Amino acid sequence: MKSILVVTFLLTVVSASAQPVYMSKSGTISFFAGTAVEDIDATNEKALSFFNTETGEVVISIPNKEFHFRRSLMEEHFNENYMETEKYPKSEFKGKINNIRSINFTEAGPFQASVTGQLSIHGLSKERTLDVAIRKDGTRLIAETKFKVLLEDHKIDRPKILWEKIAESVEVNANLVYEPYKK
Amino acid sequence: MNLTRNKALGLLACVLCFNQLYGQDLDALLKQEEGKETEYATATFKGTRLLNGQSIEAPGKGVLQVMFSHRFGTLEDPLYTFFGLTQASIRFGFDYGISNKLSVGIGRSSGLGGTTPPPTYDFSAKYRLLTQSSGAVNMPVSVALFGSTAINTVHWPADGIERSSADRFTYTGQVLVARKFSEAFSLQLMPTYIHRNLTDAADQSNDLFALGFGGRIKLSKRATFNFEYYLNRANSLGAGYYDPVAVGFDIETGGHVFQIMLTNSTGLIEPQFIGQTNTNFWDGAKGIRLGFNFSRVFTVREVKK
């Protein structure tokens, strides 16, 4: 009898806390660092992210080597000279939705979230607050944001030589597609 | 009662599992999922050549590499010959990446004084078989296959000896095995087979088997120190010929890689520097010469995204 009580109690606990963890594996992170002289852009489709709809916690991990350019030489220079991907293999973001209390993800949406956290690139992290648009697509949550990264903030060298023109600030576009996380 | 208890324990275990999933923090989940990805090694070497010989690297898809190489005279009388720069063997070549795995090359070399090594055209292909990786797919080394055919176009001397056009052909096959141990340190092994239809002298083998080895130490983002040695089977080279040795630096500036080296060989393609190096590195200035490779890459076709 006692054990049945325990089971009932535990079951209540579990059903009360529906799975709030979402994972994005098929997101797209792209950036544009070009100037009038040269188009420099790259896309990464290997970003990995977890997102807790109850606490508003977000973590994003981007393998830097997976940024692909139209020119393989640019890609090599990005890895070897600017991002130093061997030393700093991942770019990361770890933060929390500030207005999580006013968002109910069981509603239809769309939602406007303001996310504050640490953006870590090239081994240096900086606190950032980003505006993120989140919409629903069936069981999926699609998050989109756009922001700028100053190379100087993360001590990324800009080449001094004339024939490689890289902008001082890089425009980043992120599009993450979250699905309920199943172990 | 006993049965119920067992069931209850089973359920409890189940619930704990769920709770573990729920309670797990996002960082731990991230780590767990990252373990399912594969990370591939890139830029094991800066250039397509280690120094004299090939590296596992090749121009990427749609990239054309133009390379000029020189080997000068020995350093024996440096002031008179200005460090050997009065003589030079030269090769210019083009390599093109058909895909990220396959590249093809064509080159033309000619020797010091026009005879050693003789004017030669070479046609080559390099194919990347395996790429070093860690994570979900664990591959300890990168492997590339290299093959070339060289055609000696020298005017045969009027010495009464009859030679056929087949005598102009030399073939090279190599397996290049490399491992990037760390950002700063890479090693490569190059088992090599060379077949020469015609040799310079009777005591030379038509078939050469050499074991090349070399590596690089990264000094800064844009410079590395490289070394390379091709060990030939004893008595296969013939009298007066030596194993090629090279030590040097890669200096990369934008689209260029400049390699400057000290070596004992004048040849710029495998059959020449492996089989026909006629000064001894260990003789010092009498056997060592300056050399450089200078390459520039051009993106001919951009990769579609």
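The first strand of chain B starts at residue 38 and ends at 40.
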